[in-house]
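TICKET: design request
STATUS: open
ATTACHED STRUCTURE:
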């Protein structure tokens, strides 16, 4: 006899009575992976790579940025810290919006916003402008 927590096993092998999204009973059939899914995975992987590269680009540029803007190592360190804090804080509403609304539109808006901020950071004439654009 099944416990109440596990629910009742139906004739087709699923478990009823479990919360929606429960992974206690995984389907045994193989899930197909089509061309559109492979393309989507490639695009998301590329976005992730560019995001990671953009976060790491400041480290090798520290000597050039220090000389160009005339700032201290502390100020440059705060630049990297602010970038990571902004990413962490922005991930909360971004995840919420992507879960509740049109996911592709939310991802596209995030990529466009991130691209505009990266371009503006690259064109920053002063350290203060660079700091604000992160």
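STATUS: resolved
RESOLUTION: sequence designed for all positions
ATTACHED SEQUENCE:
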């Amino acid at each position: 006899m099944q416990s109440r927590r596990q629910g009742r096993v139906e004739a087709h092998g699923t478990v009823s009575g479990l919360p929606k999204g429960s992974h206690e009973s995984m389907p045994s059939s193989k899930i197909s992976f089509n061309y559109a899914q492979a393309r989507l995975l490639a695009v998301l992987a590329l976005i992730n790579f560019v995001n990671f590269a953009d976060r790491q680009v400041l480290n090798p540029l520290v000597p050039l940025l220090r000389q160009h803007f005339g700032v201290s190592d502390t100020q440059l360190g705060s630049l990297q810290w602010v970038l990571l804090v902004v990413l962490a804080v922005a991930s909360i509403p971004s995840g919420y919006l992507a879960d509740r609304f049109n996911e592709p539109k939310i991802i596209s808006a995030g990529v466009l916003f991130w691209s505009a901020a990266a371009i503006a950071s690259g064109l920053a004439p002063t350290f203060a402008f660079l700091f604000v654009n992160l």
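CLOSING REMARK: The chain has two domains: 1-31, 34-133. Confidence is low (pLDDT under 50) at residues 1-13.
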